[in-house]
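queue> pop job 88
queue> type: inverse folding (structure -> sequence)
queue> payload:
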């Protein structure tokens, strides 16, 4: 990943380049975003630029020994930490056990989501986290001599997924890492990170991508000007969302189908169908269940806003709008907050490993009452 590959984010790129050129490199930095804005690609491009031997005023050279190793994500002084799933059968407990999968995953997509990673791992009902044992591995790596780079880089994706024991063990090394060690953390929910870790890192907010930048890359990919503008509007500043809008992928199509089914079942008070849907959703894995409930909250909000008939306030694709024309009147001032609260509560319960069948069946029953208001 190079700076030139990142969509928009000119201000952040300039800040990172200036940091490398002046040698003022904070030892711990926390990149924060809402998802799809490019925080991880920025952190990886910054790591490459820091260690490039012939960097220009705007990017790494791409030809020096360091850049060639970064191309393969195999530089000996670049260390990754990311959420994983473990099992007693496979006996894989730390990130290095998953490096082959991680490198293959990153080569396929510069922008990605947590759900895409867990699907790649085939996590199923197992929730991906950064386990407590990882802290010992990190401390061991950082105490080794730097092999060849100017800066040893520890790139932590989603530190909010750290087990509490792991996070607490790393406080000292984040505050005072070994010389020439740079810890780059990339978070989508920074409020969930241990406060003492947040206070030890310089925060770099990565804001939603500028509309013009998304339009430009969409036009470059062959979209007409009008279509590119529509995609950029619906993306909400997320390049990932823009890619989803271009072609409604199987995941989103499935989620929309289940959302429509859930609302219709609740309106009709079809208890048999509610149970069948609860059984279906219970089998898709906990990470997908949470993603689905998050998607439902998005659609409830959009259906409420659709009633105002303002395209600037609406962020639905054509298929979603097709359902909203009939469904939006049932989402109103009397029930929208309670609907959102119930969906958020169900998502929380799924995250706490509550029985998924019970969660979805109970949710459908509650929607039955709320949707009639």
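queue> result:
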């Amino acid at each position: 990943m190079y700076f030139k590959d990142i969509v928009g984010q000119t201000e952040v790129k300039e800040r990172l380049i200036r940091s490398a050129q002046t040698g003022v490199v904070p030892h711990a930095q926390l990149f924060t975003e809402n998802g799809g804005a490019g925080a991880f690609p920025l952190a990886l491009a910054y790591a490459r630029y820091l260690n490039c031997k012939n960097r220009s005023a705007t990017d790494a050279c791409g030809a020096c020994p360091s850049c060639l190793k970064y191309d393969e994500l195999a530089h000996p002084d670049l260390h990754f930490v990311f959420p994983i799933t473990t099992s007693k059968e496979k006996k894989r407990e730390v990130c290095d056990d998953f490096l082959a999968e991680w490198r293959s995953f990153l080569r396929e997509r510069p922008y990605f989501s947590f759900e895409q990673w867990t699907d790649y791992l085939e996590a199923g009902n197992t929730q991906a986290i950064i386990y407590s044992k990882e802290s010992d591995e990190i401390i061991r790596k950082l105490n080794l001599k730097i092999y060849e780079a100017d800066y040893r880089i520890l790139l932590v994706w989603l530190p909010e997924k750290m087990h509490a024991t792991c996070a607490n063990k790393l406080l000292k090394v984040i505050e005072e890492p070994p010389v020439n060690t740079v810890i780059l953390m990339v978070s989508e929910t920074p409020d969930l990170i241990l406060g003492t870790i947040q206070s030890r890192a310089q925060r770099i907010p990565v804001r939603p991508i500028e509309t013009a930048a998304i339009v430009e890359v969409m036009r470059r990919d062959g979209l007409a000007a009008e279509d590119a503008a529509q995609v950029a509007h619906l993306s909400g500043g997320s390049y990932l969302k823009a890619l989803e809008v271009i072609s409604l992928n199987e995941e989103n199509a499935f989620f929309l189908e289940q959302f429509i089914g859930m609302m219709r079942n609740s309106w009709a008070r079809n208890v048999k169908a509610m149970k069948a849907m609860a059984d279906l959703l219970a089998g898709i894995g906990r990470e997908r269940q949470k993603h689905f409930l998050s998607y439902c909250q998005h659609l409830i909000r959009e259906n409420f806003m659709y009633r105002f008939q303002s395209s600037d306030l609406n962020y639905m694709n054509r298929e979603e709008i097709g359902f909203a024309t009939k469904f939006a009147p049932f989402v109103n001032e009397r029930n929208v907050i309670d609907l959102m609260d119930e969906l958020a509560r169900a998502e929380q319960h799924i995250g706490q490993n509550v029985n998924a069948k019970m969660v979805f069946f109970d949710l459908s029953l509650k929607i039955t009452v709320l949707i009639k208001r």
